[in-house]
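Hi D.,

Good news: the full-assembly prediction came through. Inputs first.
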Amino acid sequence: MMTTTLQIALAGNPNSGKTSLFNEITGTNQRVGNWPGVTIEKKSGKLTKYPNVELQDLPGIYSLSPYSPEELVARNYLIDDAPDLILNLIDGTNIERNLYLTTQLLELGVPVIIGINMMDVVEKNKQTIDIKLLSEMLYAPIVGLSVTKKKNIDELMKRSLHTHATSEGQGQNHIRYDKRLEVALEEIADVIEANTPENRRRWFSIKLFERDEEIRNELHLTKEQQIEINEIIAITEKIFQTDSTSIMINERYDFITRLVEKAVTNKSNFELSLSDKIDHVVTHRIWALPIFALVMWMVYYLSIQTVGTMATDWVNDVLFGEVIPKIATSWLAAANVAPWLEGLILEGIIAGVGAVLGFLPQMIVLFLCLALLEDCGYMARIAFVMDRLFRRFGLSGKSFIPMLISTGCGVPGVMACRTIENEKERKMTIMTTTFMPCSAKMPVIALIAGAFFPHSSWVAPAAYFVGIGAIILSGIALKKTKLFAGEASPFIMELPAYHFPHLKNVFFQTYERGKSFVIGAGTIIFTTCVLLWFMASFNFKGQMVATDKSILAALGNSVAFIFAPLGFGTWRAVVATVTGLIAKENVVATFGVLYAHAGEVSENGTEIWGALRASMAPIAGFSFLLFNLLCAPCFAAIGAIKREMADFRWTIFAIAYQCALAYGVSFITYQLGSVLLGEQDFNIGTVLAMTLIVIVTYFFIRKPANKRKPESAAIQIL
Amino acid sequence: MWATIAIALLIFGYIGVIIYRRVTKKSSGCGCSESDCPIKSHSSDTQ
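Then the structure:
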């Protein structure tokens, strides 16, 4: 076994291609995305070609200031764990901004090698970067490369190992700023000479000059030292007539400007790139949202209504409807197994798991479409567009990134909320991000759309917009309470250039999501189906009985009255909703088991649709869909909410809010919808629904808590 | 009868393995089981 001898830290700005490079050289498949903030924790992997080298993929950061959680993770690793080498990956198309972090990394006293990524795009943009000159000016080795085109990656790794073996890349003492600032930094270095190692003295001097509290505490400076440093800073601030942090920022950018002027030439100045031209349309003030709605409608139309449905129909009707049940029946008959076991396999496992797997083709098409949109850079634009919309309602576009991730799975979506610094906003986003339909909710959407609205193309995409709508409306209402009152935090996001989707990324992401769906069906859904079959076959005395007299029917009937006002007060629908808490696919599996078990249908998926249609009206079906979309997520996501909230009461509050909102929305939809469609007469439920609308409207239009406060204060003073 | 016992053992044994793996899974830090974790943040996946 080879021991790890070399630790390399992979650092750079968000969306500079670090995780793609990491995957390429470690042979792993970490999640990559064409938007900033995909990596929220550091990850490690050994290099395929050099197994004694370990690479740490750090979250993307813009600086080494301890302001955001990602910056803290990266900075703590670089300072405390002291890697042997820093591989700084730079986006060549945004070199000026990327070099800001480089100047800080070079001060750390750790050898740095710089990789300038996206050189293919740089050339396309008619830019040239004089790598040799840049390398000389930064006193660090630089390799130009393109990770997506797999160009020069080997060269970068070879140079990295060479850099470690030699004294290259130690540029901390070679970047020089204004002489007056340098004098101040040297004086601070003299003051802390006894407290710091030589190779890091400049870094500590700069941090102390910037009044970095963490570093000040770490160095355990004496009172005299602190007074002396404060005097040096105060004199320098007087000379520059600005605060010390601004001095450092200005000096860094002055240095970078000089670098870029000499080393970068741009022949396409003032020419709009293709990305700019596309952005003029898709991020248009008025057209952006209708275009987004159209795009999402097309995605769902392709996956749920047309292309995906053709394959799903075959899987449901032929594979799980005829082929597998027939083979299983003949095998079980030949093996002469007990009737109960035959029932368990055919009506429990095949009907339940088959009902979920039947939707796999639709899911694959949907995952493929979403992966294409993400990889080409469109979804990053939607975060920008949504920021404009969210800001009006007191939310930040930062909340959209977790929402975007939640369309895959709510668990990483909730985890991605860590990147939101503002505590109130973070908590609100954690509470609401699982409203987005995750991949496990897709079969539920497809089931309801197929069973009740087979000819309407709006139902499936409506589920997506119901999720966004619930988040926005929650934002409006919650921001007006004392708990969440406050201005939305600023959202700065770099829009990556559009590019043709990388097939490897797209197929990998689709495969990963599809695999996760199949594993879920083969494990948790399988187990639940077996349990459900037993509970639907036996009574409390342990006797085998008809489904309507089973344990499940008794339990479902005992709580069905709660859901009766929502239109789906049947025990089967109630059981499906409750089992959905284990995993949302269970909603579909439960119907599969229960209807197949009752002998109402064979194991044919579309027959389940017919049985479902017979059990409730379309408006009740839609109400059922809304409730299952918005209510508490699965246990795994609830666990993630608990961890991210780090507070039991907040977790309970979040779950209660989600369930109450789901109940309210379903109640209003069913009560008013059934009256409008003539399925019910005007009744007490209609009055209650209208009252609920008035109450909810009050929460939307009332004054925010922070604006109500001064009034009450004034009353107290009077 | 033997076929019934064998198939039943197979099914319940499989369920036992699923539950055992869920209960004893290494914490991935994100709540997902390791095999289907969509973010794969744990280092065991990358080494």
